[in-house]
Amino acid sequence: MSGRHNGLMRVLIVEDEQVLARAIAKGLRRRSFAVDAVYDGQSAIDAVQAADYDVVVLDRDLPKVHGDEVCRQIVEQHPQVRVLMLTASGELASRVQGLGLGADDYLIKPFAFAELVARVSALMRRSAPAVPPSLTYADLTLNQGRFQTYRAGEPIALSKKEFAVLFELMRDPETVVSTEQLLERAWDANIDPFTNVVRVTMVTLRRKLGDPPLIETVTGVGYRMAMPHADGESA
Prior knowledge:
Elements: E1 10-14, H1 18-30, E2 34-38, H2 41-50, E3 55-59, H3 67-77, E4 82-87, H4 92-100, E5 105-108, H5 113-127, E6 134-137, E7 140-143, E8 148-151, E9 154-156, H6 160-170, H7 179-186, H8 197-209, E10 215-218, E11 222-225
Parallel strand pairs: 1-2, 1-3, 3-4, 4-5
Antiparallel strand pairs: 6-7, 7-8, 8-9, 10-11
């Protein structure tokens, strides 16, 4: 599912300079994005087919499959994905050609990392449906922009992953979210699909949220928000 917000947005870095690719990925992860990185055009095509990305940061000069062809395929087959194209060429004709292929934005190397973050964030806002800055469920409030969570007015310190998981549950409280969906939206492709990290995160998240419990397990399906009863038992 594309169109997530802020820390839950998923980015694919496609850059054959592996040191640069890893540096970009590391920087974006520090800002709570879920990030994968590949180093050639064919791997990029395969990655976009296998997972939902909100933004692809795409180097133009790639081995195996040129970045122009990668961009063309993304635009044709995954129109919801935004493409930020990177190039070493500052010539106007090169930029026009890249945008003509369907890229949403263009960034010339070398670039300031802060500008890349700003452009990625702008593309995400363009593609994402409007989401309120704060989500509320029962006496629980989650403020995305400030990375803050409150219950009954009292602040709760959450890790980035706990915050991401809680956001996914609160954004549509009546929907059951599976473990696989949480892994896709709050982690990246390097996560082991058989890991118990979601269960462990859910344990610590529930403990921090306190009683009465607000998250319920739907056996064999996943998790969803639960309206607490007056006696302290969840629905």
